[in-house]
Design brief:
Layout: H1 7-26, H2 33-41, H3 45-64, H4 76-85, H5 93-117, H6 123-142, H7 152-173, H8 180-190
Helix pairs in contact: 2-3, 3-5, 3-6, 5-6, 5-7, 6-7
Amino acid sequence: MRVSFHPRTFLLIALFAAGVHSTVAQTRDHLTPQEVDLVKDAQALDLRVAVFVKAAERRMAVLTGVAMPSPTSNSKQAKKDAELWGELPKGTRAELLGDVAKILDEAITNIDDVSMHDVKNPLLPKALRKLAAAATQITDQLTPMRAQAKTEEEIGNLEQALENAQSIIEAARKLPPPTEKEKKEKSKTSKPKEKP
């Protein structure tokens, strides 16, 4: 028995296959495998947001050319970071900007999910303030890049990252002032440890 395809059916199959191939080729994970593991391990909202912040900072370091501690340096922290986080992410400017936009979006989604289920969760303001501080820094670094953006993809990803950062900053402005407990916790983490 011979099976025959109508020419139009064959064309639809060919177009579908080409579409699937191009979609697969364009898909890029915005987090490295190590970062995905760190997100999964960070069950508390503030810890998870800290992972997103560090992941975004790593991409911003690559984009801006700011040197991060090398795993080959004598610093124990640099070696620990390299083991935990892996190599710095690679990609084109457009891809790295897209990563930043998606990381910020994922952080927003995580905060939104927690707020929908537990609006009085004490980790919400802490996580949002931490994310807003990073978003402010990212905005300061991305804004000058507008003049350097060349391709449509790069411009689109840059604008999306800036839009996500701005929405985080605006949400944080609506928070009530930090409680005394939050201020004490922040001062503990911001003071450098004294050497014996």
